Amino acid sequence: MNRLFVLVVLCFVMIFSTSCQKREDKTVERNLFTFLLTCTGGSLTACNADCAAKYPDVTGDNYPAASTCFSACSTNCNLSTTLLLLTNK
What we know:
By secondary structure, this protein is mainly α. It has helices at residues 2-19, 27-38, 44-54, 63-76, 80-88.
């Protein structure tokens, strides 16, 4: 009886362990996709220049929009995270 129970448990373990799918890591692809879509001009300098052209005079009224633009450039045009992800593989 004990051997039958162990055999049934082992069968279940074998069936469920082989049916699991491995999670595919798409971090690098998503990071590059974000860079291509949201980094205006393709570099941090070009993106900042585009923001400066859009908001030449940062005043109280357009400060939130200008700040958001420059912040998005800093976040989305940063390739150091992508390089770290590529070298980690």
